[in-house]
Amino acid sequence: xxxxxxxxxxDVKAALDGCAAADSFDYKKFFKASGLAAKTADDVKKAxxxxxxxNSGFIEEEELKLFLQNFSAGARALTDKETKAFLxxxxxxxxxxxxxxxxxxxxxx
Length: 109
Known about the structure:
The protein has 6 helices and 2 strands, in the order αααβααβα. It has 109 residues and is mainly alpha-helical. It has a single domain, classed as EF-hand (Recoverin, domain 1), CATH 1.10.238.10. A two-stranded antiparallel ribbon has the order 1-2. Belongs to the parvalbumin family. GO terms for molecular function: calcium ion binding. Residues 39-74, 78-109 form the EF-hand domain.
């Protein structure tokens, strides 16, 4: 698991189970259930680097769509509606992507 040492498998499974149905993803609930919301700034930064698959320094829409699969390979992709809502919530400067500071604010929201 990509988040070994940062998040517990049980917490990640609970977070994924909580949004298994299409259009049920809520980032606040997910970050809380997975334990990420309670982690240090360094751990949140590690999570960002895992989710930023192309190492661009930003999480783009395509990476958000596959967000849950970073936590478990068998997890579903986010729906277009979920992806756009997630991006909208995190993209505070309106550039169409989520930077590290925006991600940290989203996790701690």
